[in-house]
Design brief:
By secondary structure, the protein is mainly α.
Length: 212
């Protein structure tokens, strides 16, 4: 990514926390100090969103859709009900729409007004998703943004940009990668990344991207 749209790998190597990170830590400390939140409860909540309610939930939804055509149809028709079948749902994910990537169409999700995001299936939003450059440029120049993420689509592929809101959140159903035909559902889920479910990446048949 260029400096205009920060990418997760660059943030991993920063030695000094960002202003936002420092403010969050200060708020956490203040809440604990005043007895409004207990540290173990706060740690449990953060761990839950990072490791349990994180992108692995969405990856399981995608893998089920790849493995089960009937489930895929239900997911595209009524995402809320289909996602609930796997036990996922709740606040920040009450109203979901799933859009499918194909060879002809590639979908990209953004929230232009703030950073609305489907927490129950993707966990906490990445820093770049909340950045002003990503939110504005994804609408103005989506192909340019995708190239900066390393995704250069053929010119004949249509790019559709979906603007999430507080009332409606989108999840991309990526294309199933070639070469993954013999993988079971669990193995398929291990391939699916958060970035692919936002639409800034495709799913590789061999390696999962662990970007933050």
């Amino acid at each position: 990514m260029s400096p205009d749209v920060p990418h997760g790998h660059e943030h991993e190597h920063q030695a000094i926390p960002s202003d936002v990170a420092l403010r969050v830590k200060a708020l956490e400390s203040l809440l604990v100090e005043k007895g409004l939140v207990e540290r173990p409860a706060l740690d449990a909540l953060i761990d839950s969103y990072e490791h349990k309610i994180g992108p692995r939930n969405g990856a399981r939804v995608v893998a089920r859709a790849w493995a089960d055509p009937a489930y895929k149809q239900r997911l595209l028709t009524d995402a809320n009900a289909a996602i609930a079948e796997l036990g996922y749902g709740g606040q920040q994910g009450e109203h979901m729409v799933v859009v499918e990537n194909t060879r002809q169409v590639h979908n990209l999700v953004v929230c232009t007004l703030c950073s609305c995001y489907p927490w129950p299936v993707l966990g906490l939003p990445p820093v770049w998703y909340k950045s002003a450059p990503y939110r504005s440029r994804s609408v103005i120049d989506p192909r340019g943004v995708l190239r900066e993420f390393g995704l250069d689509l053929p010119q004949e592929t249509e790019v559709r940009v979906w603007d999430s809101t507080a009332e409606l959140r989108y999840l991309v159903l990526p294309e199933r990668p070639e070469g993954a035909e013999r993988l079971n559902e669990e193995q398929l889920a291990a391939l699916v990344t958060r970035d692919a479910m936002i639409g800034v990446a495709k799913v590789s048949p061999t390696q999962k991207d662990a970007s933050a």
